[in-house]
Amino acid sequence: MAVYLDHNATTPLHEDVLQAMLPLMQAMVGNPSSLHRFGRLQKDTIERARQQVADLVDAHPDQVVFTSGGTEANNLLLKGMAVSADINRIALSMVEHMSMLEPAADLGDECAVDYIAVDKDGKVTAHTLEQAIKPDTRLVSVMSANNETGVIQDVRALAEIAGRENIWFHTDASQAAGKIDVSFKDWGVHAMTISSHKLYGPPGAGALVIDKRLPLHALLHGGAQEHGLRAGTENVPAIAGFGVAAELAKKELSERAAHTLKLRKALEQGLAQIPSATVFAQNAERLPNTVQFGVRGFDGETLLMQLDRMGIAVSSGSACTSGKTEPSHVLKAMGVPEELALSSVRVSFGRDNTIADVEKLLQALGEIIDTISKSAVMMAATV
Ligand SMILES: Cc1ncc(COP(=O)(O)O)c(C=O)c1O
Q1: Which among 292, 345, 308, 342 has a CA at the least distance from the CA of 121?
Q2: N or C: which end of the chain has fewer CB within 10 A?
Q3: Intervals of CATH 3.90.1150.10 along the chain
């Protein structure tokens, strides 16, 4: 049986989520904007999901704007704020997901973008944040937890620093929600991104949770859905599935965290026996399910392909741009040497993984490292 260790990329649908979605897909009738009973039933389904999602992140349901996912929520936030006459300069961390970095790069002349550095553990510190803030900075964005390294940021402390300067604060909690406690209220943020398919919900649903005072403009125009912030007929089954997934995530949070942390620790103990392996951001507080490591002298994509051949699915941190493999921007920002960064592999556990999966991975890694090292020695001997 193949072993899936790539839950930060996407999670399988929770059985209860599927059961909640099936009747809506089989017998869905009625547009949620319609005033008749069919429409009202659809609307009620959406409102139930809004409450469930709000509960997961400790926000008010009125603050939840449903989108098609984390990418759209991040684009809505950045592009929807940058059009405001008042927002001419923003700052975001260097380790954000591409769905933040790419729209930021696309803002053009109307909005300047500054990048907040991280330390060698991948953390934004009070010092690096303060250094990036300029007198005209109006929005700061720092993700709650990183998708590659799993490093958790001290969002509450960072939001407080920004708050002292009257700067809006956004956090992309796509990876954090469902894995650690997330509180919109307690953290004192003004906007938060969440994604359904990272917490056992369906893909194609997500949310931007907002402080109603945020100067946010819609990107999609048409109907008045989502308080006028996201026009278009809602994907009711996906939103309902997202809601159920959020409710389950809240209920099972500590159980899931304890289970995946046990697996993470077992993997890290095993990796400690491999002299060429380095766990990235080892000293930082990290998501309970995530381990990113490098194996000196190896290529991350080769490791990924070899593991895949042996029935184990992981991810590599590098990106293939124009035919050339680039090291992960996250590891680069942490000062990891390029060669080591190119050897990176990310393992992200989920609720269905077992200790046997960890053992299988460690055994497979050992075999791959042995085989490749031996063939390298033979090649060297023949030249
Ligand atoms: C931190 C982070 N933000 C945003 C996204 C994008 O979310 P979605 O796939 O729902 O568009 C991801 C997905 O990998 C992510 O890891």
Answers
A1: 292
A2: C
A3: 3-8+253-382
Please choose from 97, 193, 208, 330 the residue to mutate so as to test ligand 1's pocket, defined by most ligand atoms within 8 A of CB. 97
- CATH of span 3-8+253-382: 3.90.1150.10
Residue 231 reports pLDDT greater than 80: yes
206 lines ligand 1 (CB under 6 A): yes
Give the length of the chain.
Answer: 383
Q: Give the pLDDT confidence of 124-139 residue by residue, as tens digits.
A: 999 999 999 999 999 9
Does residue 102 come out as left (phi exceeding 0), alpha (psi in the -120 to 50 range) or beta? Answer: alpha
Where exactly does CATH 3.40.640.10 map onto the chain? 15-249
What tokens were used for 184?
A: 């919109």
pLDDT digits (tens, 9 = 90+) for 133-192: 999 999 999 999 999 999 999 999 999 999 999 999 999 999 999 999 999 999 999 999
Query: Is 15-249 CATH 3.40.50.1110?
Result: no
Rounded to whole angstroms, the Cα distance separating 158 from 30 reads 44
Instruction: Give every CB contact of residue 347 below 8 A, 6+ residues apart in sequence.
Output: 5, 267, 290, 291, 292, 293, 314, 361
Looking at residue 110, what is its pLDDT?
82
pTM for the whole structure: 0.96
**Nearest CA owner, ligand 1 atom 7:** 70
Q: Is the pLDDT of residue 380 over 70?
A: no
Quote the CA–CA distance of 37 and 236 in Å, as a whole number.
15
